[in-house]
Specification:
The chain contains six helices and no strands. It has a single domain, classed as Four Helix Bundle (Hemerythrin (Met), subunit A), CATH 1.20.120.80. The radius of gyration is 23 Å and the shape is elongated. The protein has about 200 residues and is mainly alpha-helical.
């Protein structure tokens, strides 16, 4: 009787763990849901962009005296895409308990992302037009600025991972803190391909 009463008392103080119906880990599920919401956000801006393209016809860029720096943006695209490969190198390094690869990979990824963002800011300085000048400029700044904001968030996550990596955190068994920001960083890179292709190449 005493044992039964004790069990009931323990159950009252410590309820059983909540039932988890999904086989996807909470960290991955949270990041995937977040990415889906961000895709919808980008989709709204892309809708506005294609609406402007349809209404304006062939008048996108160049027009008047304004022209987009396609070559510089192309180099910047290569820089950002390279960071996806270094991010993959980072993940493979920690999965194989290679701490040198982890440190070198995450630091390189961070520096490549920072280089991309620096070049984009420098591009804004030298474009010669402001977001309020016309519809094309507004859409251009909104899409590239939205992506730039996501790169900034990604760099913040990468900086945290870099600091933890150099402090000896993460292992082959425990590296969720590297994988989840890695998923976000790959999303940022893939989204830039759509932004670059739409704004600079079409």
């Amino acid at each position: 009787m005493e044992a039964a009463a004790h069990a009931v008392h323990e159950h009252a103080e410590h309820p059983p763990a909540a039932n988890v119906s999904s086989r996807v880990e909470a960290q991955f599920l949270g990041m995937l849901l977040f990415i889906i919401s961000e895709i919808m956000l980008f989709g709204a801006f892309f809708t506005a962009y294609f609406f402007v393209r349809v209404v304006r016809g062939a008048e996108w860029f160049p027009f008047d005296r304004f022209e987009l720096p396609v070559a510089i943006a192309g180099v910047n695209t290569a820089i950002l895409l390279s960071s996806s490969f270094t991010m993959h190198w980072t993940l493979e390094g920690i999965r194989n308990e290679n701490r040198r690869a982890l440190k070198a990979g995450i630091l390189t990824t961070f520096l490549l992302g920072l280089t991309f963002l620096t070049i984009q800011v420098n591009e804004y300085v030298h474009l010669g037009f402001a977001p309020s000048d016309n519809a094309q400029a507004t859409i251009f700044y909104c899409l590239t600025g939205l992506h730039g904001a996501h790169v900034f968030v990604g760099l913040t996550l990468l900086a945290m991972v870099t600091v933890r990596a150099f402090r000896g955190h993460y292992s082959a068994k425990e590296h969720r803190g590297v994988e989840v920001p890695g998923i976000y960083w790959h999303f940022v890179d893939i989204m830039w391909i759509f932004v670059f292709s739409s704004l600079y190449l079409l």
